[in-house]
Amino acid sequence: MADLDPEVVLGMTAQAPDGVVIIDREGLIRYWNHGSERIFGFPAAEVMGRSLDVIIPERHQQRHWDGFEKSMASGTTKYGDDDLLTVPAVGAGGRKLSIEFSVVLLNDAEGQPGYVGAVIRDVTERRAKEKELYQKVAAAKAEQATTA
Q: Which InterPro entries does the entry link to (predicted)?
């Protein structure tokens, strides 16, 4: 990859259909790509410099920030390369979403943990279909149990 122009990489990241979000050590949004705009419905200009709370449901904020602060202080995260997290999120207008994402700690200019980056995918539709299927299976099992 040494011969690849960094501008090409940045361009790919900017246009990726998946969300790419980077927050600083204060939890403020510093990068928000086209995919993030598509997923969450917020234009980059509206969220840049704002807290990530804009997409975190209120009931999950304390847990998120506790883990975030621990990771920034230790310079490590409990999530590895193979971990794909699934959480609820909030889009523009309060729209409820289900997202999957991977997360990485990014060092600042001094080599210290200064940022957290995430690659995000909207799985709201898939999760709704899974929930519907689970409900149908549960109903069928319940019906079977009453007729047995």
A: Biofilm_reg_signaling (IPR052155), PAS (IPR000014), PAS-assoc_C (IPR000700), PAS-like_dom_sf (IPR035965), PAS_4 (IPR013656)
Residue 47 and residue 111: Cα distance in Å, rounded? 26
Go through 120-129 and write b for each residue having 16 or more CB atoms within 10 A of its CB, e for each that does not: bbbbbeebee
User: Which of the 8 DSSP states describes residue 18?
Assistant: S
- The model carries a pTM of 0.86
Q: Three-class SS of residue 116? A: strand
Tell whether the model's pLDDT for residue 2 goes beyond 70.
Answer: no
- Tokens of residue 132, six digits: 């519907």
Listed in sequence order, the residues at least 6 apart from 121 whose beta carbon sits closer than 8 Å to its beta carbon are 18, 19, 39, 99, 100, 101
So what CATH class is 6-123? alpha beta
